Amino acid sequence: MTGQCSDIVGAFDRRDNWVHPADLLLGTIQRELYLKYFIGHEIYDTLLELVFWIDGEGHAPKRPRSP
């Protein structure tokens, strides 16, 4: 079965270990929660608006604010 792709898509970490997609998502969620706690909700939301800036006219996508 050479030349066929696996149904499971993952990634490799810095040590060339394969990482399952669910673990990638969990790591992303943990980093997001840590950033919210560390820098505060308002600053975090502002940073997200800057990161997700979509056009040169100064319009960022509307995202729900943190509670």
Strand pairing plus helix content: what structural class?
A: mainly alpha
- Characterize the overall form: elongated
Mind summarizing the main beta sheet?
2 strands, antiparallel
Beta strands, count = 2
| Stretches with pLDDT under 50, minimum 5 residues | 1-8
Short overview:
It is built from 2 helices and 2 strands. The protein has 67 residues and is mainly alpha-helical.
Overview of this protein structure:
With 67 residues, this protein is mainly alpha-helical. It has one domain. It has two helices and two strands; from the N terminus they run ββαα. The chain has helices at residues 21-39, 41-51; strands at residues 11-12, 18-19. The protein has a two-stranded antiparallel ribbon with strand order 1-2. Strand 1 (11-12) and strand 2 form a beta hairpin. The longest helix has 19 residues, at 21-39. The chain starts with 10 loop residues before the first strand and ends in a 16-residue tail after the last helix.
Q: Notable features of this structure?
A:
mainly alpha, two-stranded antiparallel ribbon, 67 residues
Topology of this protein?
Layout: E1 11-12, E2 18-19, H1 21-39, H2 41-51
Antiparallel strand pairs: 1-2
Helix pairs in contact: 1-2
